[in-house]
Structure formats: structure tokens, C-alpha cells
Amino acid sequence: YPDNCHNRTAAIASCPANATCSYFADCAAKIQSWSCNSGYEKSGNSCVKSCTPSCTNQSNCSWGSTTVSDGCGGTCVQCYPACQRGYKYNFSSIDCHVRPAKYIWQSSNPNCGKCECDNRCTRPPCPVCSYI
To answer: CA 107 from chain center: how many Å?
Structure first.
């Protein structure tokens, strides 16, 4: 044999994208070792972009939860914050005791709402807000 390839076992058949491979000195056809370039990590016989998730799953969410992207192609369950003063959790129109009313939802938690007197009358006669 002109080289020593028959005595060498390749670490991997071909050098994957985003990897650096070293070959046997006496057998340039076979890969002795390989590692992923900076910003990549091994996944089987390939190199994939490294990613640190931007969130972790939360549980026991008293005020409801939502699913958000983790920035790496996955998702996380995140708890909503508590209802702010004046807002009611699981608010519905039957919780409103003023007419005419406008409904307001807490921007940081869509499960929290309240109602207020709606004074946006544009055509008289305008109803007076009353509590019912």
C-alpha cells in the first residue's frame, strides 16, 4: 500500500459544514478528528449554531400563562404578572356595574380587566353614567 489508510479508521466520513477537521499524517483521505467552529456545537455528525434559550419554563402560574419563543426555535411557558390594583382576574362584562361602560385590559396580563364609565358620547342626548 502506498499509504497507511487501510490501518486508519476515520472519526467521521466527511468534514461537516462549520467544522475544522484534521487528517491522519499518513492518510490524507481519512479524518482523524474534528471540532465545530466558534459559535457552533456538535449535534451527531454535524455542527449546529449554538443557542442559549432566552427563557425557562415557569409553573404554578396564579394569574395565567402564555407560551413564548425561546429564541432558539423552541418555546417556554411564562407566567403573567398579577393583576394591578383596580383590575380583576378573569374579568368579564358581568363584573361591570356601570353603564355606559368601556372595558380596559391590563397590557401586561390579558386575563385582567376592568370597566369604567364611557363618556365618549358623540351624538346627544348622551346617557349619564350610572351604577347598576
So the answer is: 19
DSSP β-ladder status, 75-79 and 130-131: unpaired
Give the angle 95-96-101 at the CA atoms, nearest 5°.
Answer: 155
Distance separating alpha carbons of residues 22 and 128, to the nearest angstrom: 83
CA distances from 25 to 20, 30, 34 (A): 16, 9, 14
pTM of the complete model: 0.59
Question: CB atoms < 10 A from the CB of 16, how many?
Answer: 19
For the CA atoms of 114, 115, 116, 121, the dihedral, rounded to the nearest 10 degrees, stands at 140
Is omega for the bond preceding 16 within 30 degrees of 0, making it cis? Answer: no
Instruction: Pull the grid cell for residue 13.
Output: 466520513
- The Cα–Cα gap between 132 and 117 comes to 12
pLDDT digits (tens, 9 = 90+) for 38-87: 999 999 999 999 999 999 999 999 999 999 999 998 999 999 999 999 99
Domain boundaries in the chain? 5-49, 88-120+127-131
